[in-house]
Amino acid sequence: xxxxxxxxxxxxILEGKNCTLQCNYTxxxxxxxxxxxxxxxxxxxxxxxxxxSENTKSNGRYTATLDADTKQSSLxxxxxxxxxxxxxxxxxxxxxxxxxVFGPGTRLSVLP
Amino acid sequence: xxxxxxxxKYLVTQMGNDKSIKCEQNLGHDTMYWYKQDSKKFxxxxxxxxNKELIINETVPNRFSPKSPDKAHLNLHINSxxxxxxxxxxxxxxxxxxxxxxxxxxxxxxxxxxxL
Lengths: 112, 116
Known about the structure:
- By secondary structure, chain A is mainly β.
- Chain A is built from no helices and eleven strands.
- Chain A has strands spanning about 5, 10-15, 20-25, 30-40, 45-50, 55-60, 60-65, 70-75, 85-95, 100, 105-110.
- In chain B, the strands form two sheets. In chain B, strands 2, 4, 5, 6, 9, 10 and 11 form a seven-stranded mixed sheet that branches. Chain B has a four-stranded antiparallel sheet with strand order 1-3-8-7, with no helix packed on it.
- Chains A and B meet through strand 4, strand 5 and strand 10 of A and strand 5 and strand 10 of B.
């Protein structure tokens, strides 16, 4: 069964601190792994996309890693800002990148 | 300037009614999608269209019927609405460039459907 799990479910950190979110996936055949940020009341916004041959990809203060052997990915946020408060969703795609399996998301709260 | 726009933003209606949600993208993308986000915040793909042709139709009741008049529009019509249809429905689009496409999806801000 195609499935994506994320941990932790929620996370609270202080502004300026770093954090790492985890994602485990079991999808086949695997195409690529995506991270999205979803602000409350808005649609998801793409942060990174990695194919099975890529180990890491950065987008500003966001750095995603991918281990296709262990089927794990992480999203590292550096020097967090209040605006980073959102849900972060991990998505594994299959079927030549046209079928998407979403994780439940990690709810991040950044406090001043 | 909105890339993917959905209307209406909120939709409150009674059980048994028929309603439509409209979606338009001005990005020139070939592929459009409909997703449902339930109360637990899981996003699940419902439909995927490429150049007006249905690619993916997940296990969705046939009360849901997508319609794509052109590649910039993908509307969702729902017949005989049920309580379980209450959710946020997201439209998205992407540029499909072939197999193993890794183009990002651009999402609208969702339509919040509440069934009374």
